[in-house]
Specification:
Blueprint lengths: L8 E2 H15 L6 H15 L4 H12 L9 H8 L3 H8 L6 H11 L6 H36 L4 H8 L21 H30 L7 H11 L4 H5 L4 H6 L9 E2 L1 H16 L8 H15 L4 H13 L9 H4 L7 H8 L1 H9 L6 H9 L20 H16 L10 H11 L6 H11 L2 E2 L4 E2 L1
Antiparallel strand pairs: 1-2, 3-4
Helix pairs in contact: 1-18, 2-3, 2-9, 2-10, 3-8, 4-7, 7-8, 7-13, 8-9, 9-10, 14-15, 14-20, 14-22, 15-19, 18-19, 19-20, 20-21, 21-22
């Protein structure tokens, strides 16, 4: 298994690429977090933040949506709707209760029966405040926890945690007010509003929306600073340019440029695996288990420690594209219809798009794209045959199928190891690699089926 991972990898490049996964989870156009990073950094410079603080602000902005996948399933459950469409639309409504209610009622249960839709709407009207608190608290806490596990500073963690607090004390999760709100949170939310509205309403609409929230959502002085930054020559043109991502990777104060070492590289992979698995209650722990099974197969096949480390990263991130699939599809208890199945089949393509943005993840990207391919050419998305499917991809494929069979799913309970192995064996040789299957079979003999880990 070849890799460029030994080269120095700028943390900005790594997180900027992975932030595209957060964009699709939030239903935002690609590059939303990168654009917010550019906007927020401009505001930070305008208010005179020193380079050390600008560096932490930079990572807060790229990672502001780390917890975004954790409430997706709940949104689908409560509002009977597509979480991506709901999240995208909710960010575009004005800051007024009637507008919020109109939006929620217009989105709830449109594809469900009349009685089911009425029940959902009544529940929302009766418990709207508690529902909002639950969804935001879950998102904020999860995002902060993952940022902490990735070894970011307390300022970054706090900035992500308090993203939805408002200047007037009517925000979430703790109704912080004015100077009690972390500055990074205020700047990140302000950058979010500016980007969402400039995409949907142009620069005039974005500035109008920002000013309309002065004194309610935002510190008036900070709004004035943002307006000044937005008047700089080239501000809007740069924001909309095709080269913005390269520009953003050059924004870090030179003396605070950070590189990801091997430990942080792994911890970031584990962190994003949690983002992926938080998307659905039925995928909790999936990426970590696929990593475990892949590693045990690789060990049986005689892979070196270094190659096993690289394979574990690929296994952790193989499903990152599932963040682009609605929970109304991921968690559907019945059979998917044709359009839903087509949407599901796109997730390996999304995995490839996200991971291939990082030079050091070249091999991980091909595994992410190929983990649903079959040796006989009957897999997806590309219908590859045996000669074009790497051994590493074959390993992750077998590990992925094994976990899918032995984990609980919306439509059935977990399957015993022996039955799962029997099903996999029936596809071995035609669709799945025989060496990988035999390695898995040997490895599972050393596992505790109840706990799903090495004995």
């Amino acid at each position: 298994m070849t890799s460029n991972a030994s080269q120095q990898l700028r943390l900005a490049e790594l997180l900027g690429a992975l932030s595209h996964a957060l964009d699709i989870t939030e239903g935002q156009p690609r590059g939303h977090c990168v654009r917010c990073c550019w906007i927020g950094t401009k505001i930070g410079r305008q208010v005179g933040l020193p380079d050390t603080q600008l560096s932490d602000l930079y990572y807060t902005l790229l990672l502001k949506d780390l917890g975004c996948s954790s409430n997706a399933a709940r949104i689908c459950e409560l509002y009977l709707t597509d979480d991506h469409t709901f999240k995208h639309g909710f960010k575009t409504i004005s800051d007024s209760l009637p507008a919020a209610l109109r939006f929620v009622l217009s989105q709830t249960g449109l594809k469900h029966g009349f009685a089911e839709r009425v029940r959902a709407i009544v529940n929302i009207l009766q418990n709207g405040g508690d529902i909002a608190k639950e969804l935001i608290e879950t998102r904020c806490q999860r995002g902060a926890d993952i940022a902490r596990q990735m070894h970011f500073s307390n300022d970054v963690v706090d900035g992500i945690y308090s993203l939805d607090e408002h200047w007037n004390g009517n925000g979430r999760p703790h109704k912080l007010k004015e100077r009690d709100i972390p500055l990074f949170s205020q700047i990140a939310l302000m950058a979010q509003v500016l980007d969402v509205f400039q995409v949907n309403s142009g620069k005039t609409g974005a500035i109008h929306e920002l000013k309309s929230r002065s004194g309610t959502w935002f510190d008036p002085d900070l709004v004035a600073a943002a307006e000044t930054a937005a008047r700089e020559p080239g501000f809007w043109e740069e924001l909309q340019s095709d080269t913005l991502e390269t520009v953003v990777y050059g924004l870090e104060p030179a003396q605070n440029t950070r590189f990801a070492d091997e430990k942080q590289f792994d911890d970031i992979a584990h962190g994003f695996a949690q983002v992926i698995d938080s998307k659905s209650p039925y995928t909790a722990g999936h990426s970590e288990r696929v990593m475990l099974y892949s590693d045990m197969i690789a060990e049986e096949l005689g892979y070196s420690d270094r190659d096993r480390q690289l394979l574990k990263r690929a296994a952790l991130l193989h499903d990152i594209g599932k963040l682009g699939v609605s929970n109304s599809i991921l968690d559907k208890p019945g059979k998917l219809d044709n359009s839903e199945w087509e949407a599901m089949r796109m997730h390996p393509v999304y995995s490839d798009e996200i991971l291939s943005r990082i030079g050091a993840f070249k091999d991980l990207a091909s595994i992410g794209r190929g983990h649903h391919e079959k040796l006989d050419g009957h897999g997806y998305p590309d219908g590859l045959t045996a000669g074009r499917i790497s051994m590493e991809t074959r390993i992750v494929t077998v590990a992925d199928i094994f976990d899918a069979l032995t984990a609980e799913r919306p439509y059935r309970g977990p399957m015993p190891f022996s039955k799962a192995l029997g099903i996999i064996e029936s596809d071995t040789g035609s669709a799945l690699d025989p060496m990988c299957f035999e390695a898995l079979k040997r490895a599972t003999q050393r596992m505790d089926p109840e706990k799903g880990r090495a004995a």
